[in-house]
Known about the structure:
By secondary structure, this protein is mainly α. It has one domain. It has helices at residues 2-17, 19-40, 50-80, 82-88, 93-121, 130-157, 161-164, 166-173, 189-197, 200-211, 219-246. Helix 2 packs parallel to helix 5 (93-121) and helix 3 (50-80) packs antiparallel against helix 8 (166-173). The longest helix is centred in the first third of the chain and has 31 residues, at 50-80. The protein is elongated.
Amino acid sequence: MSDALTMAARSIRLSARNIDALITALALPVMLMLCFVYLFGGAIDTGGGYVQYVVPGILVICAGFGAGTTAMSVSGDMSGGIVDRFRSLDVGGTAILAGHVAASMVRNLAASTMVFAVALAIGFRPEATAGGRLAAVAILLAYILAISWIGAAVGLLAKTPEAASGFAFFVSFLPYPSSAFVPVETMPGWLHGFALNQPLTPVIEALRGLLLDQPVGAAPWQALAWCAGIVVAGMAVSAALFRRRVS
């Protein structure tokens, strides 16, 4: 545990020194939210104010940007030789990867807080009870944890940080064929099956319902089940890939 905390502190310090990447990771989700609310929101009918509808999707996209940073950081460590030095100091692979994931959680929480603050400034008004807000935070943290472990696995799979950066594009695109920006029923019929059954839709629906104090049905449990499965898969794949890379 102490090794993992040390690795997490190292990753956070490296992120703080990379000012350009830090500003980009914080600003892009905010800019995307402003574009959707002010440029497209007036043309999209969601049965209420569009900012109320779109914020949960932006929070999910924000986590995706952060996971892309994690993929590049892991790939940079693996290709730069620093992992061999850590192993000579008896720092295990689990601690190295857990440190990257923990740092990703911290970065994503900072970015999500900024998105939420700007959302409040432009009119977002959560109506959730205290319990609903805590449940929404728990689901968001579970999703950040899940996507961070996938980012770590991608970083181990990629040969260079530049190749790993493509992961950010993929996870940033995945919310679009979901209920993040428009209701699923407004999409073409052939897309409904994927949009309704991909992992991001229950996460977004759970966040939206909990934050706005609306009925959520089974969405929170589906979201947590998806996140738990992704975490287990991400950890297993990351462990296997790490052993292969250092063998």
